[in-house]
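cron nightly-structures :: item 1 of 1
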Amino acid sequence: MAESSILVAQDEFSCLICLDLVQDPVTILCGHSYCMSCITGCWDRDDQKGPKFRNLKIYTPRPGLGKNTMLDEVLEKLKKTKLQAARLAQCYAEPGDMECDVCTGRKYKAIKSCLVCLESYCQTHFERHEEFHSGKRHKMTDATGRLQEMICPQHDKLLDIFCRTDQHCVCYMCMVDEHKNHNTVSAAAERTEKQKHLEETQRKSQQRIQERHKELDELRETVETYKRSAQTAVEDSERIFTDLIRSIERSRSEVTQLIRDQEKAAVSRAEEQLKRLEQGIEDLKKRDAELEQLLHTDHHIHFLQSFQSLSVPPGSTDSPKITVSSHLSFDDGGKSVSDLREKLEHFCREEIKKDNFQRFTLDPDIAFKHLCLSEGNRVLTFGHLQPYRDHPERFYVYAQALCRESVSGRSYWEVGWTGHRCLSIAVSYKSIGRKGDGNPIKLGSNNHSWSLMCFLGKCDFWHNGGMTALPAVPWPCKIGVYVDYSAGILSFYHVTDKMTLIHRVRTTFTQPLYPAFWIDPGIGVRLFDL
């Protein structure tokens, strides 16, 4: 409401010539008010044509002009009201805002900065600055706290020129002095040129952001897929093991019941025999008492009459022979438990083989030049020099080879061999050494590889030059290798109709892992399919 009344008042007190608020108001005889400069200017130029002069009458002689004091006071109040309204429309500077350099006390937020005065102004002081410097060309910019950076520290002039030779901003004095004959352009022109480059850089950056977002979404989807697959596997495993536990519990109950039944039958027989024995003892004690009494009787006739019946020893029909074994056998129950354990172990090992089997092929670009690969690069033998191409990853000292594929997650594979020399069945990082004649590049002699070395049934485990002696295995035989990469588990098995653990090691794998081999002449190695 206050603003509306001010606008109406301003329209009513506008000069009919310049249509702005009357400055130094004068009123002529017709009653209209004008700016002193406007009315005198019109009379001086005799310019009284057009609609805005329709109320301006021609006076001869020209009347004297006196200042309209009352109107001037009203106009001053109107200006103050307008100034106060403009100030109320402003807001105080908050933390992080540019403050007006002219305000005292609590400062208002700056909206403009002068590159000549090197000051920032709120709305009110900006208007005063414009009034005070009207007619002067002060360069203004949006409020900034970097005014000093825009001024030449040497000449205290505005940096408005860019030197392409030295690639930095200079002022006019710099351009005619130390940057004379340099390739210089206006800062605005250089900004236009560099902005094109910056926009292209931004476009590429935004494109990379989109690509990264796409990769991020794909990775998140992959993670969710992993989680769903893992959850499904866990649920399936839980279901299988729950059924297995129930089956074991049922078998345990059955075995326990079998043992208890055998116990009950044996104890029942023993208790019957105990009763017969106890009864026999009681009969013998009674007979013994009768004999004792007869021995001490004084009646000869009674003695002789009773002697015939008491002098005969008890017969076998009176006291049958009783046989009780002190070693009762529960072999049937024990055998059932043993069979169940063997079946469970066999099941678990077969599941390891079936669920984690990975098919590997040997890499001809890495194999030693005397190693011959055949049958789809799944058979390795020592032979004549092979026509392999030169390759920077080839083994040049030892007869070693790596597979092309790396171990992924949980992996199982089986290896067999022929011959009666030495070989190593190993896993290795691809970063293992290739050249030189020192042991550190041999499988198991460094911290890049883990090796099971076999020779005529004797097995040793090697890693980083350290050796662990292991139990002997039949020669030749089939070896199963199991790796759980994330858990850091490496296991070697002797494989027949069952799997027997040879050695297991726990470590932390830090690089992709590859099946690897080292063989002596006369040895042939085969990667088996299940």
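cron nightly-structures :: done
Residues 1-9 have pLDDT under 50 and may be disordered.
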